[in-house]
Design goal:
There is one protein chain. A five-stranded parallel β-sheet has the order 1-4-9-12-14, with no helix packed on it. It is 2% helix and 31% strand. By secondary structure, it is an all-beta fold.
Length: 174
């Protein structure tokens, strides 16, 4: 499955849950600010009902955020706590609300606390994922990856200032 320039938000449980298989998400905003919910925004397992599976997932230039202290639930059936042939999970140039930053799955990522002002106002506008003027997602995306998706979800050029933002929405000065 490939997901690009998408907002997946405010589901009752996990916004994305993978229990084996392949997924690539590029320039996506995955956010859980729903008042009544359970589970992290993203959950990745390499087992399904205690049967081992293989999972390959890549998240590039994405935002994974929400109200929990950790919006990632990574469950390696083999408990290797490392990228391996059965649990090949990579996060590259992502803004991640995650309590465990010591895991080996992150490359050039920025880690935020839930209190960080990433989006304009998720309390009043739970589906507005416009970046704030001081959002940690600003200018952190990999430009080479951004060149494959030069326009954001609204058609705005994310390469115009030479510093693309993570997530589905490019911050503009207009």
């Amino acid at each position: 499955v490939k997901i690009t320039n998408s907002i997946i938000a405010n589901s009752g449980i996990n916004a994305i849950r993978i229990s084996g298989g392949k997924l690539k998400a590029t320039h996506c905003t995955i956010a859980s600010y729903a008042r009544k919910r359970s589970g992290a925004a993203v959950r990745i397992d390499n087992s399904d009902n205690d049967v081992a599976t293989t999972v390959t997932s890549a998240f590039e230039n994405c935002i994974i955020a929400g109200t929990y202290s950790s919006e990632l639930a990574l469950n390696d059936f083999y408990k290797a706590n490392a990228v391996n042939e059965n649990f090949n999970v990579i996060f590259k140039n992502c803004l991640v609300c995650n309590a465990n930053t010591e895991l080996p799955y992150f490359t050039s990522c920025v880690f935020a606390k839930t209190s960080s002002k990433i989006f304009t106002d998720t309390e009043r506008y739970p589906y507005d994922f416009t970046l704030t003027d001081d959002s940690p997602a600003l200018n952190m995306a990999d430009a080479n990856i951004a060149q494959t998706l030069p326009n954001d979800i609204y058609g705005q050029n994310r390469l115009a200032d030479g510093q693309p933002d993570a997530g589905a929405i490019e911050k503009t000065t207009e």
